[in-house]
Amino acid sequence: MTEDNKIVKHCKLCLMTNQKPFSINETKNQSTNQKKTTLSFDENGNCIACQNKIFKKGINWKERDKELRDVCDKYRSNDKNYDCIVSGSGGKDSMFQAHILKYKYKMNPLTITYSPILKTNIGVENLTNWINVGGFDNYTFSANGKVLSILTRESFKNLLHPSQPFKIGIKTFAAKMAKKFDINLVFYGEEYSDYGSAKMLPDAHYPVEWLINDEDVNNIYIGGSQVKEIKKKYNFLTDQDFIPYKPLISKDLVNFDLNVLFLGYFLKWDPQEVYYYASNNSGFVPDDYKSDGSYGRYSSIDDKMEYLHFYCHYIKFGIGRCRLDASQEIRNGHITREEGVNLCKKYEGEFPKRYANDCFKFMGYTHDEAIKIIDKFRPEHLWMKKNNKWIRKQEIF
Ligand SMILES: [Zn+2]
Q: Which end of the chain is more exposed for a tag (fewer CB within 10 A), N or C?
């Protein structure tokens, strides 16, 4: 974190702050001390996500629809193979993507699933509905849970980022499956810039180089440590145990024309509308309870570890699940900024009590050990202790 980033700056339109880090190639992520690019603002004080939203109001969606139809025509398979890949676990976004591609754009998507770290019941129900109600072929891959628990444990301790090894695995999964099945087109959902996780890209293409790391697998980083260090510490682990986490290497893409496109570039994407679409067409069901740390019931509900992940994000950057949900809803015009602030006052930073102990147990920590690790990651410019209680600093409310 750079010096000037110790002054928290809030977006004028939504509730995001300059503490939000950009997405990075995690296999190069050595530690939390590494300098990171964070969310930036324009001269009006609007964050990238809000600038992006304003820009998108001027888009001619009919033209984009035509562009999408052209892409589909180019990749539509004539040999009875699948035409494209949609990766997901039966969340509302993947349900929407696969369904609209199949039934509106007449594509034949293969759906693929990289299994969550700790599945929730509602997530399992939705994955089943995706296949049975939506009507898709699906390949589901589950990474070795014993290895994953070690990597998650290390990543929590080193980076306070328990989901990072999972995210490393899922990142290259679609590209690997595309190659395996000789399918040249992969669709992702919303563009990263919609959430301020990256600068706006010039077109629909996900830069494939983000998936590549030509380093020897022993030198790549998982959970803040090099694979060779992890193997030294847990000497029963072998090279094969790291297969799911291996990034692509440049050679993998020689003679294979891989196109990864954001469907969100072509289609107007409102998470609330996407939720209704997924419910009506693929049997998506929201959770019975609101998510700890927010007020929503339908985003990121398939993995118990996600609940802890959002809490860790809140500790490290002061940006919790509620703020992410509310900011998105402010940008889409569903709530006002003031309503968003009130929601954050009420819910942001709630401890993820529903699943925390399951997550700690999976990583092999007691509750107290885990809390000690969490408290070590509270930056001084965001937190102070008063009367034995943690208090936020530099907050708008
Ligand atoms: Zn904003």
A: C
Q: Is residue 156 part of a domain?
A: yes
pTM of structure: 0.94
Give pLDDT, residue 195: 81
Tell me, in angstroms, the distance from the centre of ligand 1 to residue 8's CA.
Answer: 14
Residue 121 sits in which domain range? 61-265
**Residue 31 resides in a domain:** no
Count of domains observed in the chain? 1
Task: Tell me if 210 is assigned to some domain.
Answer: yes
Q: Where are the beta strands (DSSP E) in the chain?
A: 84-87, 109-114, 138-141, 185-188, 221-222, 225-226, 259-262, 383-386, 389-392
| Separation of CA 195 and ligand 1 centre (Å) | 9
pLDDT for residue 321 = 97
Side chain identity, residue 51 = Q
- Cα–Cα separations (whole angstroms), residue 205 to 97, 185, 186, 200: 16, 11, 10, 11
pLDDT at residue number 32? 56
So what's the pLDDT on residue 309? 98
If we measure between CA atoms, which residue out of 327, 326, 332, 344 comes closest to residue 396? 344
* Residue 291 CA to its chain's centroid (Å): 16
Q: Which residues of the chain have pLDDT under 70?
A: 1-4, 31-35
Centroid of ligand 1 to alpha carbon of 204 (angstroms):
22
CATH number, domain containing residue 101:
3.40.50.620
User: According to the model, what pLDDT value does residue 192 have?
Assistant: 85
pLDDT of residue 4: 67
Residue 14 lies in a domain: no
**pLDDT value for 33:** 59
Per-residue tokens: 32: 């939390």
